[in-house]
Amino acid sequence: MPATALSNLVFDHRFIRKLPGDPVQENYRRQVRNCCYSRVSPTPVSAPTIIGWSAEMAATLGLAPEAEAHNETVQILSGSAVPECLAPFAMRYGGHQFGNWAGQLGDGRAIILGETISPQSGRWVLQLKGAGPTPYSRTADGLAVLRSSVREFLCSEAMFHLGVPTTRALSLVTTGESVLRDMFYDGNPEMEPGAVVCRVSPSFTRFGNFQIHATMQEYDLLASLVDYTITTDFPELGPPSPEVREEWFRQVCIRTADLMTHWMRTGFVHGVMNTDNMSILGLTIDYGPYGWLEDFDTNWTPNTTDASGRRYCYGRQPSIALWNLLQLANSLTSLFDDSKPLQNGLDEYTRHFNQQCLKMMKSKIGLQESESERSQQLAEALPELLQSASADMTLFYRKLADLSLVPDKSETSLPPCNDSTLDQFAEVLYDPKNLNSDTQSQILAWIRDYQAELQRCGVIDSSRKLSMNAVNPRFVLRNYLAQMAIDRAEQGDPSLIAKLLDVLRHPYEDQPENEQYGQKRPEWARDKAGCSMLSCSS
Ligand code: AMP
Ligand code: MG
């Protein structure tokens, strides 16, 4: 029977039961030592209201639909009530930020409420983001504003529906409190509405959780956390041993490679790939100044803080992930007699990513079955053309799937590829009038080669369209859409949040009635704050 209230779920707070906690009980900012977490209570708020709810996540946890309206739900999910069955705490971790070791970071505004076990779906950790300060809050307030919370809530669920590994979101609550933020870091702070997102994941452990122990030379704790992670989150590997630890690191590398492949496939740019934002489960975690490629550009990053270095731009994500894995490996050396097992894992990352990425790129053009050199060349040549043509990544691939190139009836001759073929792409380009003639002829040449290869491989239009549309989304959470939902929510109307969630539930389906949410970025949004560039302020 689904539970009608959160407190009726089954709880099992394994992390705090198995691992050592901070002996200091008071909640003040400090350097914390020799433990994995600090017990801490969320801060109650004045007027909590649920404005976003993921019915899928609720059902997965074993909650009945009535749970959303139960009066304890909003109290718990805003941090205003903590029933006995919960055991809130903040995790201790460190991290490399923009390439430099930043020391202790930790859950500065995230508080884990506890771990629940669903008979159907297993272990889930519930975490509030923006529920008040913790020992790890450093100089900040422990709070979150509505705009960044809308973005986290929607994108977590959108990624899930896209099939991209991710932490999830159960709820979005406005707190009724105001939060001071200097959104542009220009010395003009303003009061903004506060909010709390309830994030849900099998685990929130990050690379940085391991790094902090290694850096502080807490080697026993490091080993305990590794073995805890293996036992809890990788039970299929068997009981921890030196061989199992090696295999575990290899699995982390493989999962991270798979995650990068998904980000590259969907055009997602995380924006802040610091090691404290890398999940040990290979999940997308910490939605901050992320974005989706619109006009294709491998150098694009939505994060204004990274605009000059572009460390975390779209095209660099796979190599940054490897760099982050190298930092994780460095923090694990005390567990192994020599570096070989860790080097094996890193080599596996490169091998697995290259293999998966090529497969993915071929699948985006419907040539996933082909092993030919020609298919590979075609897949690899396309991104550069998209970039020269300033094509909208999402719309381009759907348009390509629609092209008639190898008709289903074998007796029909191949349709010609000419200027009118090119014209069909005009609506997915950001500046079609200025498309230079070199690029035009290169695209046309590519399409002709593509047509020939499809014919050679016996890939007919109808099956190609089906397979391409299963990997190329029709709808992604474009920044300007999220910003429209935020603007309205800030004015008291949260309805666009639910509407977008609805559309993004079926991102691969054509939804003629919702086409307005699948258009290329409008001109007004090109340079508007929140629509193409974002600061880390949240
Ligand atoms: P992020 O860049 O969001 O991954 O955050 C980096 C670190 O800063 C993490 O330890 C966060 O918990 C912390 N942090 C970010 N925003 C706040 C805030 N408003 N209050 C307290 N800590 C924060
Ligand atoms: Mg973070």
Tell me what the structure shows.
The protein has 538 residues and is of the alpha+beta class. It folds into 2 domains: 1-336, no CATH class; 364-469. It contains 16 helices and 11 strands. The strands form 4 sheets. Strands 2-8-9-7-6 form a 5-stranded antiparallel β-sheet. Strands 1-3 form a two-stranded antiparallel ribbon. Helix 7 (242-266) runs parallel beside helix 9 and helix 11 packs antiparallel against helix 14 (461-471). The longest helix has 25 residues, at 242-266.
Write the layout of secondary structure elements.
Elements: H1 14-18, E1 37-39, E2 49-53, H2 55-61, H3 71-77, E3 89-91, E4 94-97, E5 100-104, E6 110-118, E7 122-129, H4 146-162, E8 168-181, E9 190-201, H5 207-215, H6 219-233, H7 242-266, E10 268-269, E11 291-292, H8 317-331, H9 340-364, H10 373-389, H11 393-402, H12 419-423, H13 437-457, H14 461-471, H15 479-490, H16 495-504
Antiparallel strand pairs: 1-3, 2-8, 4-5, 6-7, 7-9, 8-9, 10-11
The protein binds adenosine monophosphate and magnesium ion.
Please tally the β strands and state the result. 11
**Helix and strand succession?**
HEEHHEEEEEHEEHHHEEHHHHHHHHH
The helix-and-strand class reads: alpha+beta
Tell me, briefly, the overall form: globular
Main sheet?
5 strands, antiparallel
| Fraction of residues in β-strands | 5-15%
Radius of gyration, in angstroms, nearest whole number: 24 Å
Tell me the distance between the termini: 38 Å
State the low-pLDDT regions, or none: none
Discrete helix count? 16
Residue share in helix: 25-40%
Question: Bound small molecules, which ones?
Answer: adenosine monophosphate, magnesium ion
- Widest beta sheet: strand line-up: 2-8-9-7-6
Nearest-integer average pLDDT: 97
Number of domains: 2
